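Case study.
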Amino acid sequence: MSNSSVVELPVLQEDAPCCPPVTSAALSEADSVRMAAMFKALSDPVRLRLFSRVASHEGGEACVCDIQDVGVSQPTVSHHLKKLREAGLLSSERRGTWVYYRVEPTALAAMAGLLAGGGAV
Amino acid sequence: MSNSSVVELPVLQEDAPCCPPVTSAALSEADSVRMAAMFKALSDPVRLRLFSRVASHEGGEACVCDIQDVGVSQPTVSHHLKKLREAGLLSSERRGTWVYYRVEPTALAAMAGLLAGGGAV
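After joint prediction, the assembly is written out as follows.
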């Protein structure tokens, strides 16, 4: 019936920029679930420090060997890095012995965008 | 011994702007505790929606009566608003029958500042 072989796929929410600043519009229920999961990943002090160590590392990428000195055991570091990956905040790549982590810029921009617009204080 | 009656108080961390963007510097342990508590307050979808409803409400202020229609009971709304207050994200004021909520601009700016600098995606 269609005159085109191109199927229009629904826009995946994961790829859409999210969201307008909280100061300009109330969040939808779906967006609140998605964004709350990202904030949850940053709600633990050790996890937040690991995230900041990756984000601030030279070249925007860190070997787990560069960032694991945060006062907890190596398995705990791995657990937290896994949570950050699952929440879409970090990506990882194994190279030889080590796993390298990068911040997912889309996730960081989504969180920053949501909280922006409060103005300087 | 002092030639001045003015006592220099240490700068309270609560009043200091926090923090450099995660992309520019790793968080200190103390700052990570403080900022993780703020993100924790936003880690629940209903709480995040309530926060966005207050933040986006006309005049930057919302009566609890304006924002409580988020699909949970009124006591649950109260519980979440209390958590947001305790985390320093909202302030409240009772006027007559109703309590009015405002976003704390310093807290919003601290979170936005920490996540800023990721660049547009």
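Observations recorded in class. Chain B has five helices and three strands. Confidence is low (pLDDT under 50) at residues 9-14 of chain B. We will return to this complex in the next lecture.
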